[in-house]
């Protein structure tokens, strides 16, 4: 028997929580079950071609996207059937982040800023130019008067440092 995929283990372990999460968005338990099932099938497909670095986070993201797609479809259907806008507003979930999600994001942001401040100046500058300002490696290399290869190394080192700090402190 082949070894169990990580997505299958996650599905079995976190299914109830994932359905509860989807249900919080779609407000329909049966549809929430369908959303989680479809998310699992999609993750299984992706997992066949590559290893997922954060499969549970990916699972929740797919569930969220599918649940929102479900809401949009219900909204379109209600409008086609002559539903009033007030009827549609009842099926649209509040997309305001939960307070715990906001707090977690702020904490992650604080850690990233601290870790960036720990970087050497040139590494930090290359990372900011690439990730914040969206410059291409070639443009950063020209601006900093470095080779593209070395610029790539600086950006990669900076990202790795931030990721390691996040994983240690999360």
TrEMBL record:
Looking up InterPro entries in the UniProt record yields: RNA_pol_sigma-70-like, RNA_pol_sigma-70_dom, RNA_pol_sigma70_r2, RNA_pol_sigma70_r4_t2, RNA_pol_sigma_r2, RNA_pol_sigma_r3/r4-like, WH-like_DNA-bd_sf
Q: Which UniProt keywords apply?
A: Sigma factor, Transcription, Transcription regulation
| Every RNA polymerase sigma factor 70 region 4 type domain range | 111-162
User: Signal sequence: where?
Assistant: none
The segment(s) forming the RNA polymerase sigma-70 region domain are: 10-76
What Pfam families is this protein classified in? Sigma70_r2, Sigma70_r4_2
Family per similarity comment? Belongs to the sigma-70 factor family. ECF subfamily.
What's the protein name?
A: RNA polymerase sigma factor
């Amino acid at each position: 028997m082949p070894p169990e995929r990580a997505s299958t283990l996650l599905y079995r372990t976190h299914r109830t929580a994932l359905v509860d999460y989807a249900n919080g968005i779609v407000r329909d338990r049966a549809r929430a079950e369908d959303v989680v099932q479809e998310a699992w099938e999609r993750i299984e497909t992706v997992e066949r071609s590559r290893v997922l670095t954060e499969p549970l986070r990916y699972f929740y993201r797919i569930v969220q996207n599918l649940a929102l797609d479900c809401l949009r479809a219900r909204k379109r259907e209600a409008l086609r059937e002559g539903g009033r806008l007030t009827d549609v507003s009842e099926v649209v979930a509040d997309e305001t982040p939960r307070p715990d999600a906001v707090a977690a994001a702020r904490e992650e942001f604080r850690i990233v800023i601290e870790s960036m401040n720990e970087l050497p100046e040139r590494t930090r500058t290359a990372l900011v130019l690439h990730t914040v300002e969206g410059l291409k490696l070639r443009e950063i290399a020209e601006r900093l008067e470095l080779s593209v290869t070395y610029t790539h190394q600086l950006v990669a080192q900076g990202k790795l440092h931030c990721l390691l700090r996040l994983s240690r402190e999360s």
